[in-house]
């Protein structure tokens, strides 16, 4: 059942030039990335009475819609939820809020992602390309995968993540972006290879999806967000 963390967050940083409302689904994640800020509170924590149903979340979005102009839907990994639940929720959001809707994803569910883009249920996607997947083999480079994303993907999952990145770039949404955390274990060469790959896909599809290399903040570091 789709559920949400009650601590909705208004942020000025996650989408440059916009005031955004960041919400988190409470349905787990298929990765455990190094330094994840959401793991203890949103992924490992047991759901309790404070969690919101999808209907309650939509009503809170409707009630505060005048305070922001973009909705950011995060997790955990939001797309681990059932496709039908995701579609129903986003359709209800469209009826409650007329601003931009952006989904955060790690790219492991390209089929669901393409469906949302094709149906116009989201305006953009912030997709994490945490490593240069196109260059790292899960067998030969398992230690790098384990260190950064906490798991070693199958070769099919690696293909899925690359397909999801390409789907986002092909869609070319105005609010979309590909992003990487500057993990302290990685050299600059890793990030340069990711940027080059994103540039190649943009050239291939005639797109302009930006690539962001975001600072690494230890989990205890404060973030400039306000609760709503």
Measured as a percent range, the helix fraction is 25-40%
**Domains counted in the coordinates: how many?**
1
What is the CATH architecture assignment? Alpha-Beta Barrel
Category from helices, strands and their pairing: alpha/beta
Class, according to the CATH hierarchy? Alpha Beta
Kindly report the spatial arrangement of strands forming the biggest sheet. 9-8-7-6-5-3-2-10
| N-to-C series of helices and strands | EEEHEHEHEHEHHEHEE
Low-confidence stretches: none
What sort of overall outline do the alpha carbons produce when their principal axes are compared?
Answer: globular
Note the beta-strand portion.
Answer: 15-25%
- Kindly provide the radius of gyration, computed on alpha-carbon positions and rounded to a whole number of angstroms: 17 Å
Q: And the CATH topology?
A: TIM Barrel
What gap, in angstroms, lies between the N and C termini?
Answer: 24 Å
Largest sheet: 8 strands, mixed
CATH superfamily: Aldolase class I
Number of helices: 7
Mean pLDDT: 91
Secondary structure tally: strands: 10
Keywords: Iron, Iron-sulfur, Metal-binding, S-adenosyl-L-methionine
Domain Radical SAM core: 15-228
Protein name: Radical SAM protein
